[in-house]
Amino acid sequence: MKVKVKYFASLKDRIGHAEDEVELPEGARVCDLWRRVSHEDSIPERVMTAVNMEYVQADAPIRDGDEVAFFPPVTGG
Amino acid sequence: MKIALKDKSFDPFTEIRDFQAAMNADGRFGAAAFFIGSMRDLNENEKVISMELEHYPGMTEKHLYDIAARANEKWPLIDALILHRVGVVNIADPIVVVAVWSAHRAAAFDACRFIMEDLKSKAPFWKKETTVAGERWVEKNTPGFTDIR
Lengths: 77, 149
Known about the structure:
The complex is a heterodimer. Chain A has a single domain, classed as Ubiquitin-like (UB roll) (Roll). Chain A is 21% helix and 29% strand. Chain A is built from 2 helices and 5 strands. Chain A has a 5-stranded mixed beta sheet with strand order 2-1-5-3-4. In chain B, strand 3 and strand 4 form a beta hairpin. In chain B, helix 2 packs antiparallel against helix 3. In chain B, strands 3, 4, 6, 8 and 9 form a 5-stranded antiparallel beta sheet that branches. In chain B, strands 1-5-7-2 form a 4-stranded mixed beta sheet, with helices on both faces. By secondary structure, chain B is α+β, with helices and mostly antiparallel strands. Chains A and B meet through helix 1 of A and strand 4, helix 2, helix 3 and strand 8 of B.
């Protein structure tokens, strides 16, 4: 399955780009995707994760065509 | 209920006044609570020159709608307005407006605070400051509560 990945703010700077398209095996979770794109074993505590624009936990499942986002703590307002 | 992202400087008082007039609820609301957040010239003991606000198009608007909808379920609100800047923000520019109207002050105060605190901790916005030393991402927001009781 194919998913769209988005990065924001300091995480975008660190990864080096704003978006990715990633092929994943069926049944993959958000933490598996993070491992693929960051080459880190687990999602750092301060990284926030969303699937299809809803906050999720690291073990949330991903489906074909989903948009997954990783970003640092928010600082609006 | 109105949620809007603003890519240019705006006058919060004009926005609130116009929204309230268009609500057409005169006589129904006994309480209105407003919060306006503006840009300061100092952060983390460093002089700030300007700031850029990044957001997640789609999710940011959706999240703000969800916050307002949740506030509307928790308190008997007549209406609510949330405005937030994106893009380049200059010193003293308003960044955020949260305005709520209700029959009584308890709901107005509490809902305004609830929306603002949720926005600060969960709405996907990120600030990048320009100081004399260069650019830096703001790492975290300050806590929203002081122990006044």
